[in-house]
């Protein structure tokens, strides 16, 4: 199964827990079951800094009470390389997205853009799949790592992709400059403003995921899809129809 095993999930050496909320979405909605977050990274290097950032994000999400899965893209075929996308890694990626309530995407910046590995994963996620939608209505946090000075090219592109995939992309984001200098010999992120920003982003992702949880079905309901499916509005149960009816308004 193409999943990364997260080492030391409870070890957060760069986090000052005196200032950390273990349940940042408390009071915004039901926290049970734990929010389910899928994390994707965009490099196959043995020491991939986008993967290391995703692992730090996953540890934080677990600290915040989430359930996480990190997808390993190393066995994904190219789009249309396998007839009907009938490949175990493709099936696994799509099943993980269906399982998830939110995503984290982290790409290196290469030639001023996201990597092909990052785009490959998004390209394997269809908007519609047998009447189900692997990404629509899910929350999304975007991050990038750079070898040089700070840039926002990759996160900007990831935002475009998130919008295209009909996801709710949160306002905050992370861009780690000179990522090679931000990790120690144990591949753990050092305390820094870059790490603190990742904490901020993961807190916000948890809050938006919990906040939107009871409203997801309504937020992704579309006239065009109801029309295509031949599903008319039932005025007896539709809240907007009831609220605007003359009988209801007389009782105001």
Key descriptive features of the protein:
252 residues, alpha/beta, 9 helices, 5 strands
What does this structure look like?
With 252 residues, the protein is α/β, with parallel strands linked by helices. Helix content is 35%, strand content 13%. It contains nine helices and five strands, in the order E-H-E-H-E-H-E-H-E-H-H-H-H-H. A five-stranded parallel β-sheet has the order 2-1-3-4-5, with helices on both faces. Helix 1 crosses helix 5. The radius of gyration is 20 Å and the shape is globular. The termini are far apart.
The radius of gyration computed from the alpha-carbon positions, rounded to a whole number of angstroms, is: 20 Å
SSE order: EHEHEHEHEHHHHH
Count of DSSP helices?
A: 9
Beginning-to-end CA distance, first to last residue: 57 Å
Bin the helical content. 25-40%
Number of strands: 5
Category by helix and strand content: alpha/beta
The average pLDDT score comes to 91
């Amino acid at each position: 199964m193409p999943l990364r095993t997260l080492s030391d999930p409870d070890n957060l050496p760069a986090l000052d827990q005196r200032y950390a909320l273990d349940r940042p979405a408390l009071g915004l909605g039901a926290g049970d079951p734990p929010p389910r977050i899928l994390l994707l990274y965009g490099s196959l290097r043995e020491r991939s800094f986008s993967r290391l950032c995703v692992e730090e994000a996953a540890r934080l999400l677990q600290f915040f009470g989430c359930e996480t899965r990190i997808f390993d893209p190393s066995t994904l075929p190219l789009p249309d390389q396998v007839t009907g996308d009938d490949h175990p890694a493709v099936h696994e990626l799509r099943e993980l997205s269906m399982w998830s309530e939110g995503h984290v995407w982290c790409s290196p910046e290469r030639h001023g853009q996201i990597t092909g590995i990052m785009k490959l994963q998004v390209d394997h996620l269809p908007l519609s799949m047998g009447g189900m939608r692997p990404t629509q209505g899910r929350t999304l946090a975007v991050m990038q790592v750079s070898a040089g000075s700070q840039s926002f090219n990759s996160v900007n592109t990831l935002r475009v992709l998130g919008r295209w995939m009909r996801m709710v992309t949160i306002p905050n984001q992370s861009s780690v400059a000179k990522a090679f200098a931000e990790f120690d010999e144990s591949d753990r992120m050092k305390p820094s403003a870059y790490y603190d920003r990742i904490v901020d982003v993961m807190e916000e992702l948890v809050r938006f995921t919990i906040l939107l949880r009871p409203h997801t079905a309504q937020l992704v309901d579309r006239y065009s899809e109801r029309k295509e499916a031949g599903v008319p509005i039932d005025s007896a149960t539709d809240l907007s129809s009831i609220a605007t009816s003359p009988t209801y308004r007389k009782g105001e």
